[in-house]
Amino acid sequence: MLKLTRKIDYALVALARLAKPDVAEDSPLSARQIAEDYQMPTPLVTRLLKDLQRAGLVTSTRGAHGGYTLAMAADEIAMTLVIEAIEGPVQIAACCDETEANPCDACQVIPRCPITSKIKKLNDHVVDLFRQVTLADMIEPEVDVPSEAINIVRAGAGAS
Amino acid sequence: MLKLTRKIDYALVALARLAKPDVAEDSPLSARQIAEDYQMPTPLVTRLLKDLQRAGLVTSTRGAHGGYTLAMAADEIAMTLVIEAIEGPVQIAACCDETEANPCDACQVIPRCPITSKIKKLNDHVVDLFRQVTLADMIEPEVDVPSEAINIVRAGAGAS
DNA sequence: ATTAATAGGATCATTTCGGTACTATTTCAA
DNA sequence: TTGAAATAGTACCGAAATGATCCTATTAAT
Is the CB of B64 under 7 A from strand D? Predict the structure, then answer.
């Protein structure tokens, strides 16, 4: 259904929380605290942060007073990075798997599929869109004027 | 995972088949034949075509020598229409449900969710993108030059 | 030493999705 | 008028993905 999973939602909220000014290098925030702040299941948040840490999006500090902080600036954390960290490459269909030698062969469910190459192109556009949107866009204050990046994307997508 | 379901793949292939020149008002193509052409499960193709018929994208003729034909031109059949016909409105997250009075209330899984409005905006861009792409883009011959619509979208999404 | 935190793995339950089966109805043709 | 070919509709099943939990080990500050 072309839908973000709940995991991604949780991860974005957690990252948005870490982007708040009260979190810094020397004052990380624990997974438990993040989960409590937004009533999210603690074990799940823990696992998601671990995934994000493996991908290099957050840094972890173990032990008492430990926790997580962002590993890079909010405007560097693109949604593609978040999605890839948690559920692998963004691909709207199986035939978009770049690791396959012959893309058309990857589409094993539909022999001689007539639209494989077109689906791949569409996938590129989706990836472009999600690479344009960063954590910074998610945490900006509530105003009616969308962010610069969003405006650019919209202008492009809206033109015809 | 932000992925098209196999149903959508099947539906697109079926529609692409109906767009071929051998199918016309007076010579519809049966669901069974479409399924055979691409080795797709017949009962599933039948159900998908029924959904597409309900949405007005194809017309059906019952009885012997019956079958399906496209109900409109290929460039009028946007991917959003296909997706909506088969699995409902395009919404990348629950909080994108437009039928809800208070969008933020719809996000019942995360109280005081700080990114609901931003997710909705992102959803708008996804919808825009999928509205730009039509069946005509899916069936055009295999050339390296992408279609006009795709070019426009790409130029917009790629700019920064 | 104790406490508080992450790291990692194993596991379970539930929902969704892909797929099947069966019956009714309509239409053409012999 | 009868049979075959097609859609229409519904109910159902199995498997895979997803959401969620539990347990243990390790690390660091007090």
Answer: yes
State the CATH architecture for B6-158.
Orthogonal Bundle (1.10)
- Segments of chain A scoring below 70 in pLDDT: 1, 97-108, 142-160
Residue A115, chain B, CB below 8 Å: the answer is yes
Q: CA angle B78-B82-B86, nearest 5°? A: 165
Find the DSSP H helices in A60-141. Answer: 79-87, 103-106, 116-132, 135-139
Strand C–CB B1 distance below 7 A: no
A92-104 pLDDT, tens per residue?
A: 987 776 655 444 4
Q: Are A126 and B128 in contact (CB under 8 A)?
A: no
Segment B114-144, tens digit of pLDDT: 898 899 999 999 999 999 999 999 998 755 4
Nearest CA in chain B to A2: B2
Question: Which nucleotide lies closest to B30 by the C1' atom and the CA atom?
Answer: D6
Q: Where are the domains of chain A?
A: 6-158
Q: In chain A, which residue's Cα lies nearest the Cα of B129?
A: A157
